[in-house]
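Structure first, sequence second, as always.
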């Protein structure tokens, strides 16, 4: 396996170059002549922030690296960005600050909204010299601003990938309670931005792109589901006209948060356009007593001049640099859900485990149905003890079998939920997050994890099972939206989400080797907040490969393949009732964290043999798939998609071409493969473990059956490869290798 690339920590803060007449002078790090400008720089991105004489800082530039700037350059840049006074407007220029508000002259959605006993707060901020500082070692700009009764702390961190994280914290320094209605991070974008892309979706059809022109006004997408949501905006992207996967300049934001959220952009006639995000705060939800504080989740801002793939590359490099990022090879998983559902039987599961081990599976996950009273989804949630009727010896027999076969063992939980038909709900109805009159969802309600007793009960119950069975892995599910989520009569989504995070953190502290998968009715909790404390996400509850192609394509805008669970399901998908070939299901699942969710004990010898080859292919290629640079070359065909991964040293690449619908052409297009070294010679051929699809051509391109092609990288990238005309539901996986490697 190729080791994940090392990330060298370097300062992200560029010093200003001295003016020519001051070459010998001592130069303060990144300051203009008045010590009021800071510049963060990393990964080809610059962020320039200026602190005016009064009020909060404003961003002069966020985008392409500006190079070394002198003291004089900073001052000239500030003047270049100082706004004029437009007709019928305020009498003097006003700033667009990091936390814009009416007190600044801003008439869009405020960055901060709060009141005390109904009295609106329009703070006049003061920033002392020591309140605007940069940590050179971490590339973080720290802001500390004060106003009567308020303290604001802000952090802007630019990492090696050029990804900017912004978080704000407000402290109530007054003597009366403060009711917080909004606290959001915003950044200005270039005037060239003219189109908007975000996402929507539903269960089993997550992350559906929706795109349109940038219209004037303050526009907001809110999520009020108590979790990220199947219809989450996911990322808000503003771009230059016609941007696509490989071209265009883009400005994007993602909120690293698993609760209610706000995504917003403001394009006002008399101001620079901004985009931003923050937690959605329901009325009365965040009440700060004197001395209390509230900190936002990180708003993650990314700029790219290489289209959507450039955005994705920055996200991926940023995530892979995390100390907590999975470093071990992502194992082949067999999950039992679509194999047995609730029908747990030791003999059947042992047969399934032996069959899985025989084809190379490395992790066996026992899904829903193992705990007390759980024969269907109407009972048992909350009673996290092994059902003695089904498992009289506990789970030890199946765990022993799985481990004797050389596989890891994992277990499914849904800790945040409870069925009314459970011992827990009967004994502790006061632990529910909703009033009893709230509408049920899948026959279940949420537990209030801000209740210390409920929190401790869950931590103890789960931790005991992890310890008893030495679990390697947990699939952590959450299967309903939160409606009427209250604690002591007050809205409680935000604090509840923080408690979910704390529960996960405490569990990982007790069991540092435990891996956790985030699942929420499939893909309803896919965000960087949950991924700060889990090891992969379940992208969707559908294993239909046609649906998965689109779902995974857009999920991988944010996440690299190693974080996206992707499984081979049964021949007929239980979510869509659509039948698909095994080869197509394999090719789709290969580009992710690979697994199987199917009763493979019923497979024919030929099917098992093909699965064995698929597992072998994944295990051979996962070092590349999980460390390389991902791209989506344009096929020139709306019915056909391409996904490519190229190794960092450009010696190895793998590409999948998949057809989901018929196209307009009878002759398939020639496909160019980006990211190769033009001076190297490569061998291009289908991966040996998987069959070449038959396609629709009377005579397919001869190179597919003649040992492949040997060409310079320049030819593959600029001229391209003649593809076969695939039928809908077919996929071809190619491997490209340096001939001398």
């Amino acid at each position: 396996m190729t080791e994940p690339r090392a990330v060298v920590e370097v300062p992200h803060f560029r010093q200003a170059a001295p003016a020519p007449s001051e070459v010998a002078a001592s130069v303060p790090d990144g300051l203009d002549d008045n010590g009021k400008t800071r510049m963060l720089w990393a990964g080809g991105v610059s962020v320039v922030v200026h602190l005016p004489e009064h009020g909060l800082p404003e961003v002069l530039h966020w985008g392409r690296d500006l190079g070394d700037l002198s003291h004089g350059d900073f001052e000239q840049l500030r003047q270049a960005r100082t706004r004029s006074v437009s007709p019928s407007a305020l009498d003097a220029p006003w700033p667009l600050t990091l936390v814009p508000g009416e007190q600044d002259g801003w008439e869009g959605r405020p960055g901060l909204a709060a009141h005390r006993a109904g009295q609106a707060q329009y703070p006049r901020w003061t920033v002392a010299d020591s309140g605007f500082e940069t940590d050179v070692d971490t590339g973080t700009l720290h802001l500390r601003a004060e106003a009567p009764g308020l303290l604001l702390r802000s952090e802007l961190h630019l990492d090696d990938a050029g990804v900017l994280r912004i978080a704000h914290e407000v402290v109530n320094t007054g003597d009366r309670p403060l009711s917080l209605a909004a606290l959001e991070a915003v950044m200005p974008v270039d005037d060239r931005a003219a189109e908007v892309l975000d996402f929507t979706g539903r269960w089993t059809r997550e992350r559906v792109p929706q795109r349109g022109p940038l219209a004037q006004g303050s526009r907001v997408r809110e999520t009020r589901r108590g979790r990220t949501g199947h219809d989450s905006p996911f990322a808000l992207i503003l771009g230059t006209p016609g941007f696509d996967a490989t071209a265009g300049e883009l400005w994007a934001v993602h909120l690293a948060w698993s609760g209610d959220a706000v995504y917003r952009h403001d394009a006002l006639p008399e101001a620079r356009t901004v985009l931003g995000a923050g937690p959605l705060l329901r009325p009365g939800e965040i009440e700060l007593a004197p001395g209390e504080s509230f900190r936002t989740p990180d708003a993650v801002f990314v700029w790219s001049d290489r289209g959507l793939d450039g955005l994705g590359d920055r996200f991926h490099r940023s995530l892979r640099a995390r100390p907590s990022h999975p470093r071990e090879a992502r194992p082949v998983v067999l999950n039992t859900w679509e194999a047995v559902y609730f029908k747990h039987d030791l003999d059947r599961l042992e047969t399934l485990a032996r069959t899985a081990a025989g084809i190379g599976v490395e992790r066996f996950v026992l899904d829903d149905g193992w705990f007390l009273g759980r024969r269907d989804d109407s009972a048992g949630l909350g009673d996290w003890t092994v059902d003695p009727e089904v498992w009289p010896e506990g789970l030890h027999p199946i765990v022993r079998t799985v481990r004797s076969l050389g596989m890891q063992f994992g277990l499914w939980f849904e800790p945040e939920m409870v069925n009314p038909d459970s011992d827990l709900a009967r004994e502790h109805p006061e632990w529910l997050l909703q009033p009893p009159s709230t509408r049920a969802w899948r026959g279940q309600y949420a537990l209030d994890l801000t209740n210390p007793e409920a929190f401790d009960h869950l931590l103890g119950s789960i931790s005991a099972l992890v310890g008893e069975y030495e679990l390697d892995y947990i699939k952590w599910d959450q299967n309903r939206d939160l409606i009427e989520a209250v604690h002591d009569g007050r809205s409680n989504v935000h604090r509840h989400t923080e408690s979910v995070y704390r529960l996960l953190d405490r569990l990982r502290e007790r069991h540092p080797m435990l891996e956790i998968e985030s699942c929420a009715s499939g893909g309803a909790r896919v965000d960087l907040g949950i991924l700060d404390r889990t090891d992969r996400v379940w992208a969707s509850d559908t294993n239909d490969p046609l649906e998965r192609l689109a779902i995974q394509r857009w999920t991988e805008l944010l996440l690299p393949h190693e974080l996206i669970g992707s499984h081979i399901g049964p021949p007929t998908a239980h979510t869509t009732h659509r039948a698909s070939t095994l080869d197509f299901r394999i090719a789709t699942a290969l580009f992710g964290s690979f697994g199987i969710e199917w009763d493979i004990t019923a497979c024919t010898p030929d099917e098992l043999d093909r699965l064995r080859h698929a597992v072998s292919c994944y295990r051979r290629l996962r070092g590349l798939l999980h460390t390389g640079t991902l791209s989506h070359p344009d096929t020139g065909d709306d019915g056909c998609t391409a996904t490519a991964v190229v190794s960092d040293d450009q010696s190895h690449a793998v590409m999948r071409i998949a057809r989901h619908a018929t196209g307009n052409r009878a002759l398939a297009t020639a496909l160019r493969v980006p990211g190769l070294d033009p001076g190297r010679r490569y061998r291009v051929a289908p991966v040996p473990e998987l069959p070449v699809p038959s396609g629709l051509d009377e005579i397919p391109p001869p190179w597919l059956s003649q040992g492949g092609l040997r060409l310079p990288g320049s030819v593959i990238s600029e001229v391209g490869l003649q593809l076969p005309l695939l039928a809908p539901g077919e996929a071809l996986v190619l491997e490209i290798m340096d001939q001398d490697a």
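Margin note: DSSP finds twelve helices and 41 strands in the chain.
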